[in-house]
Amino acid sequence: MEGIKVMRIKRRANLARPSVRSREAGMTLIETSLALFVLMTASAGLMGLAAMAVITTENQGHLAARTTEYAQDKMEQLISLRYGNNTTDTADADCITFGDCPNTDPDVNPTGLAEGGAIDFAAPVDYYVDYLDVNGNPLGGGTAPPANWYYMRVWEVVDAPGGVTNLKQVTVACRTRFIVGAVNEGRIPETVISTYKTWPF
After folding, report:
1. Number of domains in the chain
2. Is 164 within a domain?
3. How many distinct helices (H) and strands (E) make up the chain?
4. In this structure, are residues 167 and 198 in contact, taking their beta carbons and an 8 Å threshold?
5. What's the pLDDT tens digit per position in 23-47?
6. What is the SS3 assignment for 41?
7. Which domain holds residue 125?
């Protein structure tokens, strides 16, 4: 019996004693600093990948989509002309509506859908080239680009291959002036589209 009493007294004494916290409970400032250093080192390794993702998204996502949109706009403008139209100045900045935009300037040689032009950004053919600003507003045409151009469109009208009569092939190309990111890294976004125009439409 005395052994049981002693045991009970010891147990009660242990319960009454306040618990002492271990010295390893919680985090110290040094441990937090080391954890942040490891996290920053890992993040720095991923920053190059993040920058590359942003550049690729801007060039191939945004700018390439814009070149497609603006090439399509020019194509729609050209296709809206009558088949035999050779009098519309399609490079004029004021001629952005659909249909015929008759030329009133005697010094301008309008082309409409006359055969000519080239898909060559380095050597554009006059009256088969126009320029847009960064927001897509037309700036007019000419072989000498305006200072604030951002998009360049060139087009070509040829008789359809194979000797088919009353059929023209219209090709439009659009590109940007710059790419986002380092110079000469990557290809400048450009789009080339082509369609046919037939008589009597």
Report:
1. 1
2. yes
3. 3, 6
4. yes
5. 666 678 888 899 999 999 988 888 8
6. helix
7. 67-198
